[in-house]
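Researcher: Next entry in the queue.
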Amino acid sequence: MPIRSVTRELALLVLSQIPESQLHTLTSSSLSSLLNKALESLMQHWREQLDATAIGLESAQQDLLDSELQDSDSSSLSRVRDHLTASLNSSEKVLNSLSACLELPRLIVLGDQEEIRLASIKRVDLVLQESQKIDSRLDAVMEGWRLKRLPRIDRDILRLSVVDLMFLQTPVAVACNEAVELANRYSDEQGRRMINGVLRRLQDASFAEIS
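Model: Structure for this entry, 211 residues:
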């Protein structure tokens, strides 16, 4: 996991701890305290993911057992195929969750390093101090939607991607790809689709500005 990705993920978790009403009243020391809470939140999140993974494994196993118990005549082939498809899909989700969980110890350890903590807080500071510019940039590519209508986690993922583009000189494709990775871990299916669409338009607009 690149250091940049670590600081972005930690920044997202810090932002998730800040009520909307307190976005512009925070000090550096309070942000540091929120970072500690964010790390605790991260550990809890992946505990829940591991629990969900265990349930997914049990479900996949049950689907396979059920498919083996089906009659082999032609009328049952469709049901067997459905069971196997469900098992494969469930297994894929399980493997993806386990893969993500393997990054947790590294993220927790890095989160305690001063350089990482300061870089994460810098990202949060940029979101808070430059919120008007950031939100205007996003609203310009929303196409019929307004940023404020999105769930908080989705807004913050998008805001952090704009911080990369506008203030940290992160390459456009890198910023967008890593925002998608955050969406895959923390948003739902609808949120991921929305974020993907906005990022594509943001990427096109950024390339147009460069050219």
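Model: Residues 28-69 form the longest helix (42 residues).
Researcher: Noted, moving on.
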